[in-house]
Amino acid sequence: MFESIRLDWRSLVRLGLLAGVIAFSLCTIGMVETFNERELISGVFTVGHVLLFAVPAGVGYLCAKDSSKSKRIAVLASGFIVGLFSALPLIVLVLLVRAIDLRELGLVNMSPALGDLLTFNLGGVVGSLVLMALTGVLGLAGSAVHVMPDRIRRPLMNGVLGTLGVGLFSDIVIALLRNLFGRGAVRLLFAAGSLKPGVGIGLFIILAGVTALWEARGERFRGGLASMVPIPGRHLRLVGPVLGILVVLILPLLLGTYLSEVADVVGLYILMGAGLNIVVGLAGLLDLGYVAFYAIGAYTMAVLTSQTELGYGLSFWTALPLTVLAAVLAGFILGVPVLRMRGDYLAIVTLGFGEITRILALSDFLKPLFGGAQGIQKIPNISIAGVEFVKPEHLYYFILAGCLLAFFISSRLRDSRLGRQWMAMREDEDVAEAMGINLVKTKLLAFAIGAGFAGLAGAIFAPKLSAIFPHSFNLIVSINVLCLIIVGGMGSLPGVVVGALILVGMPELLREFTEYRLLLYGVLLIVMMIVRPEGFWPSEVRKRELRAGSEEPSPAGGGNPVEPT
Known about the structure:
The strands form 3 sheets. Strands 1-2 form a two-stranded antiparallel ribbon. Strands 3-4 form a two-stranded antiparallel ribbon. A two-stranded antiparallel ribbon has the order 5-6. Helix content is 71%, strand content 3%. The protein has 3 domains: 148 residues; 88 residues, no CATH class; 258 residues, ABC transporter involved in vitamin B12 uptake, BtuC, CATH 1.10.3470. The two termini are 29 Å apart. The protein is globular. It is mainly alpha-helical.
C-alpha cells in the first residue's frame, strides 16, 4: 500500500516522533496549560487545544507536501500514520505525571492537571487511546488539506481560520458589537468572552458557504455588478480602497478607549517602520540602533515643551519641526562615520549608537539636561486652538496623519531617481558606484530621511505619555521595528502595516500570553525565513528577487508552487 510513498516507514515514524517531541516540549514549558485558560469556543475548545493539535496537523500537511507525487490514498495514509506516532511522546508524558510528582524535581509545569488536559479527563488508558486516535485523525486532516481540490480546501480553511480568529480576538468583536448593537448582542453570541458552541458552528458554516458561493459565482456577480452600476471599471476598482479609508477613519468610534490605545501603539510602530523600511528595505543598510532617533525625537519634544525647569515651554506645533530636524541631523551624524561599512559591521556600529544614546539619557552627567533616570515630566498634550487632545481616540488621528504623511513621502521616494539609487546600492554597492551613483550622498539621505520618520514618531510619543524615561528606548524597540519589516516584507509599505499588526497589535491584544512573547517571535521569524522569506506582503521587486528560478509550473489539478529550498 505504501510502496509509492517516498517516505518509508522509518521516515514516517521519525517524523511522527519529532512532532510528538515538539508537542511534548510545548507542554513541559507550560505553554499548552497556560494557553488552555483562554477559551475560543465556550466549554469546548481553547487556545491550548489549537497549540497542541496544530502540531500533528501541520506535520501531516508537510508529509503530504513531500509526497505530492504519490497516490492520494497513500498520501492520506502517511499523514494518519505520522499523526498516530506523534501521540506517543504525549502518552509518555501522561504516564510520567501520573506516576511521579515531577514538580518536586523542578519541573513545575508537569502537573496532574496537564495529564488531565491531555487525556480529556477520561482517565489514563481511555484518554490515551482517544488522544492517539485524535492525533491520527488530525494528521490525516493535514494531509487531506494538501490533496483536496481548491474549491473544497478554501471554504474549509476560511471557515476554520475565520471562526478561530473571531474566538481569539473576541475582545475586538465584543467591543464592536457593544458599540453598534448594545450588550444584548454580546450576550446572545458570547459567553464569558468566548463564542457559544452554536454560534461557532454557525459562523463556520456561514464563512465556508460564502467562500464556496464566491468561488462558484464570484466572476458572474462582479460582471453583473459592473453592468448594473454605471461606473467605469477603473473607478470601480477604487471602491475597496475608499471603503477601507472610511473604516480607518471611524475605527476609534467603534473600538473604544482600550483598543484605540492599542491602535495608537501600532500606529507609532508603523510610523517608525516606514522610516526603517527606507534604510533597510530600500537602501539595504542594516540599522540596529534605530531607537536612537526615536529617543532623540521624544527627548527633543520633551525639552522644548516641558513645563518643568528642564523645558522651554514651547507649543507642540512650534517644537515639531525642530524635533524632526534634530532627528534628521542625528541621522547625518550617524551616517558620516559608517559610510564605508557594510553588513555586520554596520549593524554593530548602529547598535552601539543606539545604546550610547540611551545611556547618555540615563546618565547623571546629562541629568541637568535630560533628567536622568527620572526622565522629563509635565509634557503638555497636543492642542489645537486651545483644545487639548488627551484620549487615545483623539491621538489616533494625529498618529494616522503622521503615518499617511510618511507613506506618501516613502512611496514618492521609492519611485523616484533617489529610490532607484537606493535599490541599486542595496543590490551591489560597487556596481552602483561604477554606474555613477554617489554612495556618500545616497547613504546619508537614507539615514537622514529614515531618522526623520522616527523623530516624528518620538515627537508624538512624548505628549502621548506626558512623561518620558530612558527605559522606554531599549534595544528591543529597534528589534521590533526591524522584525515587523522582515515579517511584513522588506521594501513594502503595506508589509509594514501587516508586520506591525502581527508583531505589535497581536501581543497587545493577547497580553495573557506575554510570558511567551519572545519565544513566539523567534518561532515566527524562523518559519517566515523558511516558508516565506519575502514576507506576508512583499514588494513586487523583492518577491521576484527571492522567487526567481524557484517557482515551477503548477501541476495538473491546481497544486501549489514548489517552495524555495
